[in-house]
Specification:
CATH topology of one domain: Nuclear Transport Factor 2, Chain: A
CATH architecture of one domain: Roll
Oligomer: single chain
Radius of gyration: 21 Å
Number of strands: 4
Strand order of the largest sheet: 1-2-3-4
Distance between the termini: 28 Å
CATH class of one domain: Alpha Beta
Order of helices and strands: EEEEHHH
């Protein structure tokens, strides 16, 4: 029997993030110790057009959760601080501007064609879908 099959999966939370999906999996060892795996999965295509998934995985053990969370939060706080300087590219703001521009272009087209003025824009449904897949994760909850 493989070592992999001896690990009990207790919880799995996929988080879609653009072209990537992150999987937060809580597992238990045979000795009933809890740990988490965080897997980044990216869809790739080979030269023949066949789909495969490139995966990167880290193992995070319960005794390291607090230190990991402190490091993660410190890094996110630093990114927020650096983004406030305006010296770095902000892909979130760029995406929002793209959607706003798309909505205004669709709004102008709707003024010219009153039959479509009641239809929601694709940007509205995209931003709703994106906000539904964005989750805050606290390691203390595990």
């Amino acid at each position: 029997m493989s070592d992999q099959s001896n690990r009990e999966e207790i919880f799995s939370k996929p988080v879609r993030a653009g072209k990537r999906t992150y999987f937060f999996d809580v597992k238990a060892t045979r000795g009933r110790d809890l740990y988490m795996t965080i897997t980044e999965s990216k869809r790739r295509f080979d030269d023949d057009g066949n789909v495969h998934y490139q995966k990167h995985k880290i193992f995070l053990y319960r005794e390291d959760f607090q230190n990991f969370e402190e490091g993660f939060v410190a890094a996110v706080d630093k990114i927020d601080e650096l983004m406030a300087t305006g010296d770095y590219r902000d892909p979130i703001a760029e995406r929002e501007a793209k959607y706003a521009n798309s909505e205004s272009n669709e709004g102008a087209a709707a003024e010219n064609d009153s039959d479509t003025s009641e239809l929601p824009s694709s940007a509205e449904s995209d931003s709703t879908e994106e906000s539904e897949t964005s989750d805050d994760i606290s390691f203390e909850d595990l």
